[in-house]
């Protein structure tokens, strides 16, 4: 029988051979051949509809919360100065008084940076102009006529109190400094001189005779004053640095943009050449690792044999701990440790050599896939900007919500519509104004004025708190939804690439747009489902962080231990769920099944090939880490040499800046973001091709009816080949 007859016989046997019986394993039954599957299924139905409807309902709820925040909130209350009566300076009753004056500025500053969080524990009033002199009220010599800065509801001239009692009750300021307005706050002039002229704070306090006393008339010594006012100097210094940084960014913005574009081009070139250098990078690193520990083992053991008959030792001292160690024993210990690591590395290399070769081949194939569909590199840009929009919307709503309570008080305090002619409040009008939001409970006329105010405040605070929590949860859900959308879109495109038998001929037109359409048309519910799971875990982690912060300083080690354990467990759970979700999205993009089914199938497929999964995951992580570092290092080094004027032919373009490090840092951070976006596409390509490769191995056997879709390189590594039909003249 000739070669041609033998080949025809093998072909007929492959065509008539019955399907092998597939035994179910511990992790499910391996996939079987499906003659209708030729890549991502086009004829599919909507999945996880209930979760899609739930997602839309929650979005409507977020719109309602945002409407409430934008209608009743006023961010000016968080930025513009507000006096102790919660009135905005320069508005309403305080019209014509745009500046804020603190009664005891030193007491404020003694709180440190916490003053910007908790507020200043001293009366604050709105004034028409900041003080133009330094003045300390002395109760024995000064009269009520010298009290220039008092609370709005206190008239010092008509009061029967003594000056001493007025100061004790903090009805008027006990001292004030010559000040200048800064962000509408009165700041002592000598602090601004310290900032602008570089003068010493203690010297300026002494020269300006800027004394101060507390509410009881006790003078602050110079050390207390310096400590209390230094926090404002820190703030002013930070403001100066911020202005200079903004100035540098404005000056060099186009150069920073060029640097980021160059980083983008370099990242693109690096991805393309990965198909040729991936294998070299992996094998060179492995050989370098083995060589390093081989040398370490040999050298340390050699030193041990040279010194084993001596008594050489050395002393180590850490604080109160002192140790004396023998040099020969130290070298022996290092030699044994290095030898164990070397042995483990060699055994891993021997047993996993073929799997490492598969990982390298898949990485090269991922580079080819990205090179074939270059528009995939643009995909991460849209999810990235969508995430920025989501986070920006959350932050905006959160700021408006935070100001809702103060805005309500501001509206009542600054509007004569809610007051009687004598200045007291008309609570019936207040109830009418608030009942539209708080419902019928606010119309309870049996409540007294004080009870109603307390009730109103509690209801409003509760609503704002719950709204903030809901807004935060929706931010997590939407951000994870955007991430899932990007992953599934890329997975559908790369699955189309893998299941194309002749590449790139059989790749469908517009694979990215087709995949994006399938996501929106059929799988919004599945995307929302996966994102919801991650969002819930993230909210639990945030709650644990809050509990952990509350337990700080508490003498309860058992509770702290359990909280730390829970934080660790939920961190691991989030990482696992993100890994499982990504693989579930790949199978959803390819087969169109619901989230739970796809997650189960992905998990079973991974567990049936767990060793390959671990190897490909770690090798890919290593290569992507090296690639990101190369791109970031290139961008950082290039920007450093340019902005430092070390590139001679570009020296004429080097700008004059306050801080040369500012554009360098921005280019470095921007290049890292760009590299992360680009290589996230690469990582998704490798993960998708790998899962398709595992399916290919289980579904097909290389016969003419069930040929492998994997590349020739992968078939060669696995020792597999496709049987060629007698009528097919091409080898594949």
Question: Any overview of this molecule?
Answer:
Helices cover 64% and strands 4% of the residues. Helix 8 (201-207) runs antiparallel to helix 9 and helix 16 (524-551) runs antiparallel to helix 17. The two termini are 25 Å apart. A two-stranded antiparallel ribbon has the order 1-2. It has a two-stranded antiparallel sheet with strand order 3-4. A two-stranded antiparallel sheet has the order 5-6. It is globular. The chain contains 21 helices and eight strands. It is mainly alpha-helical. Strand 5 (179-182) and strand 6 (185-188) form a beta hairpin. The protein has helices at residues 3-16, 49-72, 76-79, 105-109, 115-118, 163-168, 189-197, 201-207, 222-307, 327-372, 381-402, 404-413, 427-438, 449-498, 511-522, 524-551, 557-591, 595-607, 610-643, 661-699, 712-718; strands at 99-102, 124-127, 135-136, 175-176, 179-182, 185-188, 313-318, 321-326. It is found in: Cell membrane; Membrane. It comes from Magallana gigas (Pacific oyster). Keywords: Glycoprotein, Membrane, Transmembrane, Transmembrane helix. It is a multi-pass membrane protein. Belongs to the CTL (choline transporter-like) family.
């Amino acid at each position: 029988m000739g070669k041609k007859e033998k080949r025809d016989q093998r072909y007929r046997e492959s065509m008539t051979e019955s399907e092998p019986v597939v035994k179910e394993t511990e992790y499910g039954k391996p996939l079987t051949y499906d003659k209708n599957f030729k890549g991502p299924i086009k004829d599919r139905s909507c999945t996880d509809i209930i979760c899609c409807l739930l997602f839309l309902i929650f979005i409507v709820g977020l719109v309602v919360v945002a409407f409430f925040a934008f209608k009743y909130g006023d961010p000016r209350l968080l930025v513009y100065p507000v006096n102790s009566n919660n009135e905005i300076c320069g508005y309403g009753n305080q019209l014509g008084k745009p500046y804020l004056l603190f009664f005891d500025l030193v007491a404020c500053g003694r709180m440190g940076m916490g003053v910007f969080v908790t507020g200043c524990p001293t009366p604050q009033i709105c004034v028409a102009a900041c003080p133009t002199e330094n003045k300390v009220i002395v109760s024995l010599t000064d009269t009520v006529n010298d009290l220039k800065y008092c609370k709005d509801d206190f008239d010092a001239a008509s009061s029967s109190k003594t000056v001493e009692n007025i100061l004790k009750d903090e009805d008027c300021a006990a001292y004030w400094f010559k000040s200048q307005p800064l962000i509408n706050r009165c700041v002592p002039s000598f602090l601004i001189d310290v900032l602008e002229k570089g003068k010493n704070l203690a010297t300026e306090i002494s020269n300006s005779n800027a004394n101060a006393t507390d509410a009881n008339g006790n003078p602050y010594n110079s050390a207390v004053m310096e400590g209390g006012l230094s926090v404002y100097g820190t703030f002013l210094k930070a403001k100066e640095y911020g202005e200079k940084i903004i100035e540098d960014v404005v000056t060099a913005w186009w150069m920073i943009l060029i640097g980021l574009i160059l980083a983008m081009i370099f990242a693109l070139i690096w991805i393309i050449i990965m198909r040729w250098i991936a294998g070299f990078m992996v094998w060179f690193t492995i050989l370098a690792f083995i060589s390093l520990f081989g040398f370490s083992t040999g050298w340390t053991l050699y030193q041990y044999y040279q010194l084993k008959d001596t008594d050489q030792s050395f002393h180590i001292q850490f604080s109160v701990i002192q140790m004396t160690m023998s040099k020969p024993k130290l070298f022996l210990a290092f030699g044994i440790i290095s030898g164990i690591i070397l042995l483990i590395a060699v055994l891993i290399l021997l047993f996993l050599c073929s799997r490492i070769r598969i990982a390298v081949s898949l990485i090269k194939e991922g580079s080819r896939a990205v090179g074939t569909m270059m528009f995939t590199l643009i995909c991460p840009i849209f999810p990235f900007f969508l995430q920025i929009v989501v986070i920006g919307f959350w932050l905006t709503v959160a700021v408006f919500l935070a100001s809702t309570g103060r805005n309500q008080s501001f509206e009542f305090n600054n509007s004569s519509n809610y007051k009687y002619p004598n200045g007291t409040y008309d609570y019936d009008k207040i109830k009418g104004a608030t009942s539209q939001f708080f419902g019928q409970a606010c119309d309870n006329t049996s409540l007294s004025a004080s009870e109603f105010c307390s009730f109103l405040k509690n209801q409003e605070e509760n609503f704002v708190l719950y709204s903030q929590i809901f807004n935060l949860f929706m931010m997590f859900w939407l951000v994870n939804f955007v991430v899932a959308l990007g992953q599934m879109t890329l997975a559908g495109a790369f699955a189309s690439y893998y299941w194309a038998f002749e590449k790139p001929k059989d790749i469908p037109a517009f694979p990215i747009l087709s995949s994006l359409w399938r996501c929106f048309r059929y799988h919004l519910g599945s995307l929302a489902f996966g994102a919801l799971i991650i969002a819930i875990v993230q909210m639990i982690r945030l709650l644990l962080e809050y509990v952990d912060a509350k337990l700080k300083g508490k003498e309860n080690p058992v509770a702290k231990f359990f909280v730390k354990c829970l934080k660790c467990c939920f961190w691991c759970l989030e990482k696992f769920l993100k890994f499982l979700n990504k693989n579930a999205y790949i199978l959803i993009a390819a087969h169109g099944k619901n989230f739970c089914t796809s997650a189960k199938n992905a998990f079973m497929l991974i567990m049936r090939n767990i060793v390959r999964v671990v190897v490909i995951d770690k090798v890919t992580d290593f290569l992507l880490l090296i690639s990101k570092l190369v791109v970031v290092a290139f961008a950082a080094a290039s920007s450093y040499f340019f902005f430092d004027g070390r590139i001679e032919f570009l020296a004429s373009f080097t700008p004059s800046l306050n801080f040369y490090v500012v554009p360098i840092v921005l280019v470095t951070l921007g290049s890292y973001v760009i590299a992360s976006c680009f290589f996230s596409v690469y990582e998704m390509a490798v993960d998708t091709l790998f899962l398709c490769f595992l399916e290919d191995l289980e579904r097909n056997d290389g016969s003419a009816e069930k040929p492998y879709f994997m590349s020739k390189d992968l078939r060669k590594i696995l020792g597999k080949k496709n049987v060629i039909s007698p009528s097919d003249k091409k080898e594949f």
